[in-house]
């Protein structure tokens, strides 16, 4: 569809970009990224023919850009420059109709049925039909941008060049416009080349990305090939971190601010309180937490954890709302609190503290093993919920990497199983040694200050403490449970 | 939509007819309109109508129409509703040409009285070419800001030249001043004949660029990507507009406000679409100037006010009123 060969562009003697080559296939979206002043908007102008290149060539559908007359080119390609306010108040209809200019020829060229259809279709696609007779200056920025995109769609060319199509728009309008463009690409084979300011939006909506630095191509490829942490930090001179998008297989980045933390963050015994109704952990600052809790599971930052006692006949159906309400009633913030529940008396919780070279590590366990299960034999039983849960917290004064968090979860789980074996807790259906209960919850929390741990496996410095601590605390908790049971 | 356009054209034409009828009938001597077709009953009145009032009305109409359509085109081209023929320095050039003719008492033997309009038009064209080449020299892509700035520079320079001539003139002072204030009186048919071809050519040039003007409202870059040959169209529009302005200023002097007010009013009433805006401004410009001329010669009769005074007097309040109303309606 579009091929760019060794393209260079300059303003007078000032070189803006040089030696840029890439190809875009039909039905794809290419995003052009780069810091301010890297030449991305100028590149777009040269590709569109608005500015002559100082070297190289642009090929559209197999023919050089120069071989097209302005009108022919306008039928092949549309460029939508950044939204600029018009001093005149045209109606939406008039504005969209201008898109038909290249399709009308001759001195008395009249409005054909085809033109009417194209305008109507473009207005429908962009959802501006209902404003048809309104003047454009009465519309919001997002609506105006949709009108201009409708104008571009009415032009009915197969290649659309956009310069920051969602600039100055709120996220609802950003999504709306990019979803709409994406839909055009998927359904009607439109090809789009767009300059983006927002790296995350570009990664999300583009098939390919072109990263520019000082007028040259730094990287070109699929978003996961171009958005590499080191590369982005290098080009933009900003610290960032990449994560996966929750729904799409696309990388997303976050800025890492260079804030100096003055305050030293340390967890001590004072943060824990063990009561009849619940065990609570309260910290003055949030900790990074990975957990399988009932409320706020997953990875996040929280400063309060609670593990509460519930009645054995607790209605699990509307646990989400009930727990939210409960946290508020206890005077905590539901968005800053992790919640677990158990049927055992939390007054019997075991809190253990371990002094280490890097700081203190705390382990809190409540155990009920009435419905203990051997995970290797669990396929033999029907899914019956019975009370009896082992809830484990591990709070570390240290900094853990993502893999250390996951490894810490594994280490703690293995230690728990070992504790059950040590106490000879039996799966009553298979009559084998149990490995846990059907509803165990585990929480690993770290202050993310102090010593850094890349790994959290059994023989690492932090893993050793986790293994020992979880084992000892779980054994103690099971013994207390057995005592109460007998 | 179609209905609205029909209404726009028919109402504009009706107003023009009424303006012509009033312009021809009303004057120091009360002559009924029907005298136009009746030479026998009153040969004197017939004579007044055909040799004095009719050419005056038609000249006023042509001047008004030219200034208005040129204003509409320049505004669309410059994407600036406050632009008008004067912004580009074109009318200053025309004025300088005309004032120089009076000041130096030029007279080319064969064409005699036409010397002044001819020099005026020449001044307009030369100024246009200078402004365009200078703007091009600064910025090859001829951005609109560059054009406006160049126009302003030339306007002020030419204005100083005119002031200098006024300061140095003795005998010609009154003549220069009255020409500068603008008038369509006592010009007669030869002037009508003289500017008519320029008006027609200018109108045609602009009219053939009506759709391009619509595209250029969205910026030069967008227009180019729509397939408009922006540079060529820009030249055509500037040439057409300058021709119309030059012709109008040369025969009637500096008559302000028409090129600004008429396209504005037309746009507010009937929309921004240049396919209709140009022609409607042309018609309404004619009506406005015919009425203004009528007022200028009747309001303090038997004396006459300069027509430029009237256009400003009528134009400014009407413009303000419409502007005010529009803004209020928007809230």
TrEMBL record, chain A:
Residues 2-239 form the ABC transporter domain. GO terms for molecular function: ATP binding; ATP hydrolysis activity. It comes from the Bacteria. Keywords: ATP-binding, Nucleotide-binding, Translocase, Transport. SUPFAM superfamilies: P-loop containing nucleoside triphosphate hydrolases (SSF52540). PANTHER family: HEMIN IMPORT ATP-BINDING PROTEIN HMUV. This is Heme ABC transporter ATP-binding protein.
